[in-house]
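Dear Dr. H.,

I hope your travels went smoothly. While you were away I took the liberty of generating a structure for the chain from your last submission, since the lab meeting agenda had it listed for discussion. I wanted you to have the full record in hand beforehand rather than looking at slides cold. The sequence, exactly as received, is reproduced here:
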Amino acid sequence: MTHSQKIAALVGPGILVTTITETVNSHIWAGNTAAGIHFNGTVLFVAGLALVRSHNLWVRGWPTLLTLTGWFILSLGLFRMIAPELQLKAAQTPSEWLLPSITPMIMVGLYLTYKAYWPSGKTSPNLDR
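The corresponding predicted structure, in token form, is as follows:
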């Protein structure tokens, strides 16, 4: 198993479970506080930073999606830390954008999980880092 597959084996299922459970329990976000959202942002920022530090790989192929996911998580965490009130206001406003906003995360989680647990059997020396 390559380094990218090992990281994807953690990140893929993590994104799936987090996205699904946050969507199913979306009502709890409306009752949250700015401090709670700031803390959530801190956790996301640290997780994204850890992913970027351990897998900042820019190659042609799926490992770049893993790197981009790390940068996205880091950026989302930073946004929630800088402007928790905006996130809180968005959570308190009903939106028809809920399903379209979670669909890309579900797709990324499924794809990374697939690449981690059902490898093609082909390895490249550039990806075995």
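Two observations you may find useful: Helices lie at 3-24, 27-30, 34-54, 63-82, 84-92, 98-117. The chain has a mean pLDDT of 89.

With kind regards,
E. W.
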